[in-house]
DNA sequence: AATAAAAGTTTCCGATCTGGGACTTTTTTA
DNA sequence: TAAAAAAGTCCCAGATCGGAAACTTTTATT
């Protein structure tokens, strides 16, 4: 299937972190607030936003969800 | 920006694993082969494909790349 | 500029990962 | 259906995570 939803490619943990930070800011949420209504600690958010390479995927999904976002897989080179 | 690239939403580690397995199969690659040309071990691939919750994000990116795919972030509810 | 809030840093430490190797089970294919 | 290949399981050991809490630095607000 095909979609016309705006999406941002993230190539690596650095880009992921940068984007999550940007999104959190635009939602006017603090790290503390998010850590309070999710299962994700403040330190985790802090480190992920700074590009942590080894964060655990389950928690990454939780945080993405908390920020009102989704993760999509795209086949490279598809047209 | 907007795109018309086919993408598959992955909500959690289970869906991610399922999709990566499907993609690996369609590329006719074995776990062993991938582990040989990447920095990702066979056991890691095995467990991720089975939906491992705590896989580390850096290796997930490596595997996605090895399978010729990209990860995209999408704002939920955007139209 | 002073105060407060948010963000970033550091330490401690139990929990869990990851790769390697060896073995078993399942699937493929000749 | 027999052999080979792939996938899955198990144990080990060293590495790293991630929460909590206390502290420092940066940013925001008055």
Give the topology, please:
2 copies of one chain form a homodimer.
Chain A lengths: L6 E4 L2 H14 L4 H7 L4 H8 L7 H10 L2 E7 L4
Chain A binds a DNA duplex (30 and 30 nucleotides) through helix 2 and helix 3.
Question: Would you write up a description of this structure?
Answer:
Two copies of one chain form a homodimer. With 79 residues, chain A is of the alpha+beta class. Chain A has a domain at 13-66: Orthogonal Bundle (434 Repressor (Amino-terminal Domain)), CATH 1.10.260.40. Chain A is built from four helices and two strands. The first copy, chain A, has helices spanning 13-26, 31-37, 42-49, 57-66, and strands at 7-10, 69-75. The longest helix of chain A is centred in the N-terminal third of the chain and has 14 residues, at 13-26. The radius of gyration of chain A is 13 Å and the shape is globular. The A-B interface holds A 1-13, 16, 19, 23, 52-58, 60-61, 64, 68-79 and B 1-13, 16, 19, 23, 52-58, 60-61, 64, 68-79. β1 (7-10) of chain A pairs antiparallel with β2 (69-75) of chain B. Chain A binds a DNA duplex (30 and 30 nucleotides) through α2 and α3.
């Amino acid at each position: 299937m095909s979609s016309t939803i705006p999406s941002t490619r993230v190539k690596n943990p650095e880009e992921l972190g940068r984007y999550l930070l940007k999104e959190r800011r635009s939602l006017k949420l603090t790290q503390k607030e998010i850590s309070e209504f999710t299962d994700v600690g403040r330190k985790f958010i802090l480190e992920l936003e700074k590009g942590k390479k080894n964060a655990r995927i389950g928690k990454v999904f939780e945080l993405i969800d908390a920020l009102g976002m989704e993760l999509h897989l795209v086949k490279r080179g598809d047209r």
